[in-house]
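Hey all, quick one. A colleague (J.T.) asked me to put the adenosine-5'-triphosphate job into the tracker so the inputs and the structure tokens live in one place instead of scattered across chat threads. No bug as far as I know, just bookkeeping. Sequence used:
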Amino acid sequence: MLQKHANLMTDSQPILSLKSVRKMFGPHAAVDTINIDITEGEFFTIVGPSGSGKTTLIRMLAGMDQPTSGDILLRGTRINDLPANKRPTCMVFQSLALFPHRTVGQNIEFPLKIRGEDPAKRKVRALQLMTLLRLPESYYGKNVMKCSGGERQRVALARALAYDPQILFFDEPLSAIDYKLRKTLEKELKDIHRETNKTFIYITHSLEEAMVMSDRIGVMRDGKLVQVGTPHEIYTAPRSRFVSEFVGDVNVIPVTRAGNGRLRMNDSGRELVPPGKAPEFASGHLVVRPEYLRFLKQTSDADNALEGRLYNEYALGSRIQYQVRVGENVFVVEKLRQQPFSGKLDDKVIIGWDANDGILVSE
Ligand code: ATP
């Protein structure tokens, strides 16, 4: 799968291209000059906080709205003015928009019925899609409102697939679902993507959700795509403090470049060793993820070390997170439960990290 995706990324024409796409609401640019190519078969997720322009963007991609300027190309053909029902795409909404008084089978067969397919063929296809979506065959005649939230989610996806679209859009379909089921459905959706080979374009405000499922993620802020990359790139090489803070807890240290090639912490004046691949800048932030911070026996055990006091500890299942107070600042350190550590609350501790485990960002 990964190899196939890598080939797609280099060989094929994009299924969807956005060229300087903008959407103005009065003087406000809800989507501001977006350029991106989506590769056929890709699972591309647009992630961003509330109001960043995700819905506006996906509505334009799906043909429910038109850009104020710029072009949307489907396999090289401009489709700005093509209405939603003429596009080879389908949207799965958070509300699911199922027909409440109909059966699972009737809901899934709806697209086939409006296309005029005969009932026997419709049923065969509906049952195939139910197998793909792990819905028991016995559900075919079940009223859709008697299904659980997760099952309804699968029915909505089966119905979307029955349209046989080239691109499926997902507008926060899992946001109303409880945590445990959401985690299961995220993985299922990724499996279904793999099995169908369709292009999935998904929006969510949760970078954690995006990380689990996506081939690539585009992070939006104030109408702009501020970074596009694989989940690994977004996690390990965020280009800004904004992107770095979007997933999990991070330690963000305001720093200034000292004349001797080192960094100086803005609050304490303490010098730190920068990562090898550090961008040129006068001042910015050093980001260190909690799992790269560790407790040290002595300050010489890591490139960078800070002395502090153990303030609190939080059990996170397989990991334990610690808060360490260093002067006025709180640092978050995370370690696996099985790693030995005997520190107690209020103990003096030394925490540290290797220079190349830090990420330097200029904003
Ligand atoms: P959320 O996660 O809350 O759904 P979003 O990232 O999807 O947010 P949008 O709904 O696309 O963000 O909104 C982007 C900006 O455009 C916001 O400032 C919003 O107020 C504005 N906006 C969206 N639709 C309209 C509209 N029809 N008229 C005027 N302004 C709008």
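Adding what we noticed when we looked at it: The CA atoms of residues 303 and 354 lie 5 Å apart. Residues 179-196 form the longest helix (18 residues).
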